[in-house]
Amino acid sequence: MTNPPDDPTTALPGRPPVVDLATWQTARDELLVREKAHTREGDALAAARRRLPMVELDGTVEVVGPGGPVPFLDLFQGRDELVVYQHMWYDGAPHQGQCEGCTTTAWHMKDAVYLNARGVSFAILTTGRWDEVASYVEFMGYTQPWYSVRGVAAPIGGGMGHIVSFLRDGDRVFLTYSTTGRGNEPVNGSLGLLDMTPYGRREGWEDNPEGWPKAAEAGSPVGGHGSPICWYWRSDADGTATWGPTSRPVPQWTRPGASPVETLGRHGHHH
Questions:
Q1: pLDDT the model gives residue 202
Q2: H or E stretch including 22?
Q3: Nearby residues of 72 by Cβ (< 8 Å), 6 or more positions away
Q4: Is the pLDDT of residue 39 over 70?
Q5: How far is it, in rounded angstroms, from Cα 81 to Cα 76?
Q6: Number of neighbours of residue 161 by Cβ within 10 angstroms
Q7: What is the pLDDT of residue 230?
Q8: Mean pLDDT over residues 104-110, rounded?
Q9: The predicted structure's pLDDT at residue 219
Q10: Which residues in the chain belong to E strands, given as ranges?
Q11: Per-residue b or e along 46-81, where b marks 16 or more CB atoms closer than 10 Å to that residue's CB
Q12: CA 264 to CA 19: how far, in whole Å?
């Protein structure tokens, strides 16, 4: 026989109540009502996105890829739709000094085979010089097409850190949607899974139960991107989340040659 739920030997300090399965299921079902409403509102927002007006662009504008300059139209690879991620770039920085958020986003989009099957092409654009970009792409092992948009005006170039959608009609190209910040989160499936875990993302802004582990307890000092920092962006060789000089964007640690370093090589991130 198990201990009753209110038995002090069963309860855990700083944790939600421990209950029987039926009580848990009731609470779970109540939350499900809200989750379904959230899903339906998301569907309604997606329907509204599909009705946004479009902006026509010059598809002959050239971007630079592994084969040299190509017209933007080529990025569609003959398909009607194109989604791009605009990856930030720090000129002259070593691999570990590139944007950790962009590294994480690009890492979650290593394979666009499902998008391709639905008639959607995918590419990553960045403002870096092509020789630096090519070295980084090789180091990371990325197989998606990358292009430099250095000197290209918005919306093909312009602000980085955005997801942008385009539509092709013959040789005509149209901008249909763009998002940035937390609007980029759907690409990062890990965030969705973390939201389903007991401790969540362990970011400083989250609304957590009293006594829950704090973001700072994960080893992340305050700084850089607000307070407290998103702990999962960077870690050192031991897996400790840190913004210190020996850190890298987390996905880089799976790459050959990703050893501890002495500097991030980025302005404002020397410690």
A1: 80
A2: helix 21-49
A3: 57, 58, 59, 60, 61, 62, 63, 156, 173
A4: yes
A5: 7
A6: 16
A7: 59
A8: 92
A9: 45
A10: 55-57, 62-65, 68-71, 81-87, 120-126, 146-148, 162-169, 172-180, 234-235, 248-249
A11: eeeeeeeeeeebebebbbbbeeeeeebbbbbeeeeb
A12: 48
Residues making up the chain, counted from first to last: 271
CA atoms of 254 and 212, how far apart (whole Å): 30
Closest of 247, 252, 253, 223 to residue 234, by C-alpha:
247
Report CA dihedral (116, 46, 162, 158) to the nearest 10 degrees: 100
Q: Which two tokens stand for residue 165?
A: 């959608």
pLDDT score, position 246: 86
**Which band of pLDDT confidence, cut at 50, 70 and 90, is reported for residue 237?**
confident
Helices (H) and strands (E) in the chain, counts: 5, 10
- Please answer whether residues 203 and 185 qualify as being in contact, where contact means their C-beta atoms are separated by less than 8 angstroms: no
Separation between Cα atoms, residue 66 and residue 143, nearest integer Å: 12
- Residue 99 CA to residue 249 CA, distance in Å, equals 8
Q: Residue 68 pairs with which residues in a beta bridge?
A: 65
Among residues 131, 120, 127, 121, the alpha carbon closest in space to that of 154 is found at 127
- Residue 161 Ramachandran class (φ > 0 left, ψ -120 to 50 alpha, else beta): left
pLDDT in tens, 150-193: 999 988 988 899 999 999 999 999 999 999 999 999 999 999 99
CB atoms within 10 A of CB 116: 13
* Side chain identity, residue 234: R
Rounded mean pLDDT, 130-146: 95
Quote the distance between the C-alpha of residue 179 and its chain's center: 12
